[in-house]
Amino acid sequence: MEGIGLLQMLELRLELLLSVLGSLLATLVIGFLFSRIIRRSLRRYNPLLAEATARYGSWAIYMVGILFSLELLNLKLETILVFVVLIGVLVVIGLRDILPNYFAKQIIDMYKPFNVGDWVKIEEIVGKVVEINDLYTQVVTRSHARVYIPNNLLVKHTISNLSKAGGIDVTARISVPLSRSLDDIISTIEKAISEEAREEGTGDSEIQVVSLNAKTVELEVKVRILNPQRVEDVRSRVLRKIYRALETELKG
Q1: Which portions of the chain are predicted below pLDDT 50?
Q2: What pLDDT sits at residue 60?
Q3: Which pLDDT score, from 0 to 100, does residue 1 have?
Q4: Kind and range of the H or E element at 240?
Q5: Which of 16, 27, 40, 131 lies 20 to 30 Å from 202 when distance is taken between CA atoms?
Q6: What is the pTM of this model?
Q7: CA dist list (Å): 81 to 63, 75, 94, 190, 205
Q8: The domain at 168-251 falls in which architecture?
C-alpha cells in the first residue's frame, strides 16, 4: 500500500511539473506571437509605438504567465507577491547602471536629436554617429577614433547636430599688407573662398575685419562645410587659394 501511495504521489508531482512547464512554454509562445503581430501590424503606422507596445506588452504577458505557473504550485498569493517583489528589487539593483542608459535610449528615439550618419558635437567631441543601441551611442571622430558615449550622458549634455544645422564653419585668420584699398583686398579674397564654398555644396562664406592699422589688416575668413571631417583639409585649401589670389593681384 505504501508503494502504491508513493507511486501516486510521484505521478501527481510529475503532472504538476508538466503543468507548470506547459504553462511557462505557453506563456513564451503567446508573448512571442503577441510581439511579432504587434510589430508587423503597427510598424507601418508608428514604429516607436509598435516597438514599445510589443516590448512592454510581451513583458506583461510573461509576468502573468509566471504568476499563473506559481499558483499551480499551490503557493499563497502573499508568497507569490513577495517573490515577485524580491525578484524585481534584485533586477533593479543588478541593472542600476543599465536602466538609465536604456530609458535614455527611449528618449533619444522619441525626440530624435540626431540619427545614424549625422555629425554631432557633444561637449568637446565632434564626430559622426555610426551606431545607437540600448546602452551607448558610438561616434567616430575626425581623427577616426571610436568613442562610446553612454546614452544617459547624452540626455544630460548639450548636443549640437551639425548635419541638421547645415554644416560647420571653418575659420582661418590672415594678415594682409595694405598695399591697396581694403575693399579690393576683401573682394579678391571673396572670389577665392567663394569657389571653395561652392565646391563644398554650401555657398556660404564670410570675411570679417579683426584689426586694422596703417600697414596691415587682419581678417577672419569663414567657410561653411557639410563634412566636419574635412576641416583641416578645407582650411589648408582656403589659405592656399587666398595666397595665390593675392599673389596674382600683386603681380598684376
Answers
A1: 1-2
A2: 77
A3: 47
A4: helix 231-251
A5: 131
A6: 0.48
A7: 11, 10, 20, 74, 67
A8: 2-Layer Sandwich (3.30)
